[in-house]
Amino acid sequence: MRFATLAISALATCAIARPAPMSHAPAPVFERSLLSAAVDLLDPAAALDGLSAEGAAAWVGASLGLEASVIDVSARTDLATWIGGASVNLDASVVAAIKDWCNGASSAELDVEVIAEISLLTPFAIAIAAAGDLVVDVEGIVSVGAAVGVVLEASLQATLETFIAANADLDAEVKVALNICAAGGLVASLSADVKAALTAYLDDASCGLSASLKAAIKLWLSGTVGVGVSALGTVSTAASISASIGAAIDAAVDVSGIVSASYISSLEAWISAQTDLDADIKAWLEVCTGAESALSLDVDAVIKLTAWLFDSSCTLSAQLKAVVLVWLNVRVNLADTVSVLAAADIATLTAWIGGDIAASLSATVKGVIAVAIAGEAVVNVSVDAVAELVGVLTGCVSGIDISVDIQIILGKWVSGETCDCKNNSTKRALVSHA
After folding, report:
1. Distance (Å, whole) CA 152 – CA 132
2. Which of 107, 126, 143 is the last residue of a domain?
3. Over the stretch 114-144, which tens digit does the pLDDT of each residue have?
4. pLDDT tens digits along 296-331
5. 269 and 186 in one domain?
6. Which of 428, 298, 381 is CA-nearest to residue 413?
7. Which UniProt keywords apply (predicted)?
8. What value does the mean pLDDT take over residues 25-43?
9. Is 134 left (phi over 0), alpha (psi -120 to 50) or beta?
10. pTM for this entry
11. Which helix (H) or strand (E) holds 321?
12. Cα–Cα distance between 340 and 345 in angstroms, integer?
């Protein structure tokens, strides 16, 4: 499971806005069986009913694999009290482990197995904490207004866009990084190799950027507020929860492209309930449920399966769609050939992102889309950032409506098979493990 390390990376760099008042925290769409028998998700939004904002923040810290000492004692006490109540429907061993973390030594961390059992509820805990103006990062619990991500200021973004357009021969990794920066994206969207490539480029004598822009990009790379770089401002409720949902989706598929057992069970149950499922679709999904990577699927299979995920005939839950799409994305990371979008698709995306939808998207998602619009392949984008985009595309994030044509364009880009536009350059920066 990669959830702990990747979720820390994703959540520590995304601002979480205070959601509007509601009876329950914003509810992403989850498959009921995904927590096996451990948690009853008949009413997902109510799964953490009665948990205070501080207690929810402690839940988030625990599920991110943080040491108990990082989380305030009062928050851990709230969580321990709530978790011991009769209303919570968790396996006794999970309850005991969380209590031990709340009350144990300062260096206590939850076991990976326990994190796997509770991680799918983490987005709800994040929403509850955010309603109390709290957010959790690697340093502990802080106020929602605290700077948890930095972006290049608008005037420098425009200057950088002009520079990119005038320098078509930039190294692909450098170009991906600069496009994310110019789109107001976050450095967390970059894989480790791409960050290293940009750092080396900035320090090279051949770098054509002005001194001021170069200095600002270096600040952005280090996550530091300074001249030309500002803290990420308030974001929409949908944008505020998309990072955590992306982290939960990303946790479902390991770096070798194998889907976790709980998701396999859920997908198997769905397949067995279908009476008229296309034979090819069924066969491709059974590769997934057979605990195999998507590497064995040919180009035609990937194209057709991706299109089916966004077809009205597909009745998979939003989260299962997301998991299958991330499963296909890992195939891109394992293959030697990747593809880029056609000019017509880029034009459609450019017009779409220039509309009202941009206000609902997180900085990470906008940065990833900027890479697609720049005519670059998905392979140089960190896998957790891709998973956040996938969560939005498949409808896991409530409050964001995306038309089918946009879903298909970005879906095929994520799955790495955009039909005729091939980029046969050497595979680079496959997955961000940091």
Report:
1. 29
2. 143
3. 876 776 677 678 778 877 877 776 667 766 5
4. 999 899 999 999 999 999 999 888 899 999 999 998
5. yes
6. 381
7. Signal
8. 38
9. beta
10. 0.71
11. helix 318-334
12. 10
Count of alpha carbons within 13 Å of 21, Cβ hemisphere only?
0
Last residue of a domain, which of 143, 167, 188?
Answer: 143
Task: Work out how many domains the chain is built from and give that number.
Answer: 2
- Concatenating the DSSP letter of every residue in 119-167 gives GGGHHHHHHHHHHTTEEEETTEEEETTS---EEE-HHHHHHHHHHHHH-
- Please indicate, yes or no, whether residues 342 and 430 belong to a single structural domain of this protein: yes
Non-local (6+) Cβ contacts of 47 within 8 A are 39, 40, 41, 121, 124
DSSP H or E stretch at residue 355: none
The secondary structure of 52-112 as a DSSP string is -HHHHHHHHHHHTT--GGGS-HHHHHHHHHHHTSTT----HHHHHHHHHHHHS-TT----H
Distance separating alpha carbons of residues 162 and 410, to the nearest angstrom:
24
Residue 357's contacts (CB-CB under 8 Å, 6 or more residues apart) are: 400, 402
- Ramachandran sector of residue 355 (left: φ over 0; alpha: ψ -120 to 50; beta: rest): beta
In a domain, 10, yes or no: no
Amino acid at 64: L
**366 and 322 both lie in a single domain:** yes
CA dihedral 216, 218, 224, 228 (to 10 degrees): 0
**Domain ranges, residue 394:** 146-434
